[in-house]
TrEMBL record:
One of its GO terms (molecular function) is kinase activity. The lineage of its organism: Bacteria, Pseudomonadati, Pseudomonadota, Alphaproteobacteria, Hyphomicrobiales. The keyword Transferase applies. GO terms for biological process: phosphoenolpyruvate-dependent sugar phosphotransferase system. The keyword Protease does not apply. It is found in: Cytoplasm. Keywords: Coiled coil, Cytoplasm, Kinase, Magnesium, Metal-binding, Phosphotransferase system, Sugar transport, Transferase, Transport. It comes from Methyloceanibacter caenitepidi. This is phosphoenolpyruvate--protein phosphotransferase.
Length: 325
């Protein structure tokens, strides 16, 4: 199997009915970058910047951050990289930074909430990202947005940093794109307001499903109580696809679902054409894509999605077996 996947490295991920699917990897350290070439992925759909903060003993300084982001862009060698701004709190702890114990950390003071309340850390990170670009494209993604106003406020801080960069005569990014993660259910009902403002969005299905089903992703007793291939999850995802199509906003999904071939197949059936996953999943997912007829899956899913109350997992397995996926 490994040899079979390696042979697919240079093969573009195109379905039998000619749908190109963008396959990207999730990463968080410089150490992950060789996987980009090895896997033959199209880019880095999620770079988790908190990793540098989590393995460090103190806050990484502006220079250290800039150096890392620059090396990441150097090694990506022109393939797109989406840098997610710091997402700490919840399950992601940094030892030297304690916001105080919280009863419900997943629902607490984390990610963009921290960034907006204590903008110094966020602004330093944005400054590092903008400095690292040096004539290259910079894509910044904001985690845990639950209200359009948070995106607007963060975007304001980013624009301010860009102005400062220009004022100081430093090299600018050739292009700056700012996107949001769709991982808090409240955002599902604001997409018509959010999408016109964002350059792209990426679904964080790990958090989106945890919040949608009120089931802690790190608690095994409850995390498997719902099925990501059940009608509720799939209908929520379909809603996002439809809205992104309506507003012509580039859409990706970067949660764990994307790396499981059956789940990835369902995502393509819903209309996703870009997904981001652990590097080891690129081979198996690409093999699935190459043997899939996306439009017949799409038709099959449409037939089932509004009628069913139970998981579509078995139906999807049957579809895959019948059609040789
Ligand atoms: C997600 O929530 O699905 C996601 C990709 O981000 P993280 O797993 O880092 O929370
Ligand atoms: Mg998340």
């Amino acid at each position: 199997k490994q040899a079979q996947y390696a042979a697919l490295r240079e093969v573009p991920a195109v379905t039998l009915d000619d749908q190109r699917v963008n396959l990207q990897i999730n990463a968080g350290l410089l150490f992950d970058l060789p996987h980009l070439k090895q896997s033959g992925a199209d880019g880095i759909g999620l770079f988790r910047t908190e990793l540098q903060f989590m393995i460090s003993e103190t806050f990484p300084r502006l220079e250290q951050q800039t150096k890392l982001y620059k090396s990441i862009l150097d090694q990506a060698a022109g393939r797109p990289v989406v840098f997610r701004s710091l997402d700490v709190g919840g399950d992601k702890v940094i030892p030297y930074f304690r916001g105080g114990a919280e009863e419900n950390p997943a629902l607490g003071w984390r990610a963009i909430r921290m960034a907006l309340d204590k903008p110094a850390v966020f602004r330093t990170q944005i400054r590092a990202l903008l400095r690292a670009a040096q004539g290259r494209e910079m894509r910044i993604m904001l985690p845990m947005i639950s209200d359009v106003s948070e995106f607007e406020a963060a975007r304001g801080l980013i624009d301010h940093e860009l102005t400062l960069l220009k004022t100081h005569g430093r090299p600018e990014p050739s292009k700056l794109m700012v996107g949001a993660m769709v991982e808090v259910p409240s955002l599902l009902w604001q997409l018509d307001h959010l999408l016109p403002l964002t350059d792209f969005v990426s679904v964080g299905s790990n958090d989106l499903l945890q919040f949608l089903f009120a089931a802690d992703r790190s608690n095994e007793r409850v995390s498997s109580r719902f099925d990501s291939l059940g009608p509720t999850a799939l209908r929520a995802l379909r809603h996002i696809v439809r809205e992104a199509e309506r507003f012509k906003t580039p859409l990706t999904l970067c949660g764990e679902m994307a790396g499981k071939p059956l789940e990835a197949m369902a995502l393509i059936g819903l209309g996703f054409r870009s997904i981001s996953m652990a590097p080891a999943s690129v081979g198996p997912v690409k093999a699935m894509v190459l043997s899939l007829d996306a439009s017949s899956l799409q038709t099959r899913l449409e037939e089932m999605l509004d009628r069913r109350t139970t998981s579509l997992r078995e139906d999807l397995k049957r579809f895959a077996a019948e059609t040789g996926v």
